[in-house]
Amino acid sequence: MEEKTRTALVVGGCRGIGRAITLRLAEDGFDVYPTCRKSSEAAEQLAQEVRGLGRKCTILEFDVRDRAGVRKALDDAFADDPPDAVVYNSGITKDNLFVFMDGAEWDDVIDTNLQGFYNTVQPLVFGMLARRSGRIVVISSASGQSGQAGQVNYSASKAGLIGAVKALARETGRKGILVNAVAPGVIETEMTKELPKDKILPIIPLQRFGKAAEVAGVVSFLCGKDSTYVQGQVIAVNGGLVI
């Protein structure tokens, strides 16, 4: 019998690190479902690149904060057959010193980075449990491991994801679902292009920013055949920024 093609949902999978993850999983043989809030030329270009690799690409459009909208999109896309791998990569920053941080800066980051995880992953877990297989990979951050001044909201959201991964791994391991986190450091993306390299590079032992493909490589490992005894772990991809 022909082996079933694996599928992967990459939440926040059309830009930056998410885009690299989508392409890497397509190279690994997954049909991919990257998500974005709005259709764009960049998303369509990504889809074309995936199809050029011989894999299917279906762009899903939703705001991770919209629980009902997310649920409908996932039901339409997956029905009773959840993806084999789910990567939660959606995240924003709204940096400010906590003493000056307004409610919107706090809420927007928590709602996107942490609430969005619940909204997009929780609806798929029951199907994975019933099937007794699945991979869930959550993109956290070095800021969630060590905390960063000016990022109390972001650090809290990313630390929350690490806690969620560890607890969910305990809940689902007996059913064959592997749940892990990846914690990138400073990665070359649109989000980091304005950062002062002269101040940051001296505190990174490898003396450079990371590349999105280096994060994608770890996600590939966690979604692949060589990680079958890795559960509830946080794998740092940070050049030594947090040790």
Can you offer a commentary on this structure?
There is one protein chain. By secondary structure, the chain is an alpha/beta fold. It has one domain (7-237): Rossmann fold (3-Layer(aba) Sandwich), CATH 3.40.50.720. It contains eight helices and seven strands, in the order βαβαβαβαβααβααβ. The protein has a seven-stranded parallel beta sheet, with helices on both faces. Helix 1 (16-27) packs across helix 8, helix 3 (67-78) runs parallel beside helix 4 and helix 4 (103-131) runs parallel beside helix 6 (152-172).
Task: Please render the helix and strand layout as text.
Layout: E1 7-11, H1 16-27, E2 31-36, H2 41-52, E3 60-61, H3 67-78, E4 85-88, H4 103-131, E5 134-139, H5 142-146, H6 152-172, E6 177-184, H7 197-200, H8 212-222, E7 234-237
Parallel strand pairs: 1-2, 1-4, 2-3, 4-5, 5-6, 6-7
